[in-house]
Each structure stands twice: as structure tokens, then as C-alpha cells.
Amino acid sequence: MTYKAEYIWIDGTQPTARLRSKTKVLPDGAELPIWGFDGSSTNQAPGDKSDCVLRPVFSCPDPIRGGAHVLVLAEVELVDGTPHPSNTRAALTPIATEYASAEPLFGLEQEYTFFKDGRPLGFPSGGFPAPQGFYYCGVGADEVYGRDVVEAHLDACLEAGLSISGINAEVMPGQWEFQVGPLSPLDVADQLWVARWLLYRIAENFGVTATLDPKPVQGDWNGAGCHTNFSTKAMRSSYDPIISACEALGKNAEEHVRNYGAGIENRLTGSHETAPWTEYSYGVSDRGASVRIPWQVAQDQKGYIEDRRPNANVDPYVVTRLITDTVCSAAH
Ligand code: ADP
Ligand code: MN
Ligand code: MN
Ligand code: MN
Ligand code: MN
Distances from the Cα of 131 to the Cαs of 143, 169, 265, in angstroms? Predict the structure, then answer.
């Protein structure tokens, strides 16, 4: 007998990488082998040196095929065994190891937008729906679009064993969010990539597409972000390290914003619950700040902070690496 392993990897598309996957049929009980693919078809290699290597780094039950079938997230390597230039996970690993004793934890709020027939789900053809105001966490067929897809995705993630902590309808019609974490940097990023793959794959069954476009509709419509909640053991025990983390992020704001997802200047405008991308700020309860200290955290004098800047299309290996490095190196 056999089982199916769906190998998932991140390609070399610029400026925002895409997910790819293909299936390997394996004998029952066989371990997940290293595999390969045609890098010339994924923006990862020239045609005359096209072979790239897939090294499994994370696997979980496949909730779509069920049974003993699995999803396999793989890192992309060159044939000499070194990380492919598109492999951002390889750069996170040493930072996660260096600061493991600080016990960094991340919770990622992945926002996304469903599209059908070239427009966001819930948008009428050739026009616009009623202005924003009732869609966020709404209920009813006039406010919520795509809930059946969202529920199927949540169930699939839970069956796969991913640490999804919640879902909600967002401010713009057809826009939704799920949260992953809190988990270590590598775990949260691996799981977010698999949860994204499941989102696209489940939406396929419903004939809709999901996009991480940070500003899917211009004008008075919210963009899509990936708020990144972060704590270290020290931040979870007292308040001074919370302030120090906010200050450290301010000192390195430019590098962070530059790496928080393509098109960030279109989303971080200063409107729609964002701070302008050119200015760094932090504050308690402030959804117009770059970094928010949740009210409850100020009350408890310990907890975590929320970096509100990352775009929905951010690479979770990059945002977790930058925040861990910036905050933990300053705390030394
Ligand atoms: P918001 O009010 O911004 O919409 P959410 O409830 O959507 O907040 O997301 C909050 C996220 O913060 C969740 O993913 C949760 O797992 C995460 N979180 C909670 N506590 C911590 C912590 N100590 N460190 C890091 N992340 C945390
Ligand atoms: Mn072929
Ligand atoms: Mn949220
Ligand atoms: Mn949100
Ligand atoms: Mn948030």
C-alpha cells in the first residue's frame, strides 16, 4: 500500500513569492525523502541548470486527502545542498537558535480577501457595496461573504494540527482573518505557510480565489495586513522589556518596513487603522500606531506587543527574523 505526500514549497517570484506543490506517492511506512523540481518553471533556476532540491522541514496530516496522507513543507536548496537564494527560512534558523533562550513567541493575524469574477466576493458587478461599517465580525447574508469557505479552511487547519487561534470577518466585504500562534519563530512561520496553502486549496473547491494583496481595492476600503504579535519570556513577566522592545523596533524601523511586504506604502497611509510607513510610533490601545501595546498588557504590566505594520503578503520567515533579531539583540 501507499500514501500521498503533497510537497509544498515557496517559489522565486518577485517581489512576492508564491506557493507551489506536487504529489509524491510513497510506500506505506517510508520516510519523507529529499525530492526535486524544475526550478526554471518557478523563477528559481535557468533552463540549463534547472534542478532544485526539496528538503522536508515540516509535515502534518493532509486534511483534504485524509487517511495517512500528509502535507510536507520543504525548504528549497541548490544541488550542492546550500540554501537557494529564495530560501528565507534558512536565514531565520540561526537567529531563532541564537535567541532561543529568550523564548520568543509570535501570533500572526493573517488577513486576506476572496475574489470571484475579478472582484472581491460581495462586491456587485460594476459597482460598490455599501460603505464599510457593518462587515467587521458581521452576521447575515448582506454583510458576510464566503463564510462556508472560511469554516472549511478552519476545520482543515485544525485537522492538520495547526495552531489556529481564531478567525473573524474583516472590515471590507470579502475580507477575512485567521490567527496562528502563539508559537516559536520557525513553528509560526512554517504553520502560516501551510495554512496559506490550505486556504488557496480549499477556496479552489468553492470556485473562489484568496489573495494576500495588501490593498485589493483602492479608495476608502481597508487594506489587508498581517499584524505580528510578539513576546519574549522577559516581556511576559514585566513591563520594562515591553517598552524596550517598542524602542528597539523604532531604532530599526526603516529596515523593518522595507521588508514587511511589497506595496507597503499603499497600505500604511495613516488612514484605515494604520500609521504612515514613514513614521514610527507606539502606544497603548492605539490602532493608529505602528506598534500597539494592548490595553490588557498595560493593565497587567506584562504580556506582548502588536506590530501592526506587516502587510498580508509579508514573508513570515522574514518578519519573525527581523523582530527577534532587533528586539533580542537590543536586550543583550
Ligand atoms: P486583535 O485584537 O489585534 O485583532 P487577535 O485576537 O486577532 O488580536 O490576535 C492576537 C494574537 O496575539 C493571537 O494570534 C494570539 O495568539 C497572539 N498572542 C497572544 N498572546 C501572545 C504572546 N504572549 N506572545 C505573542 N503572541 C501572543
Ligand atoms: Mn515533466
Ligand atoms: Mn485580529
Ligand atoms: Mn484584522
Ligand atoms: Mn491586530
Answer: 11, 15, 23
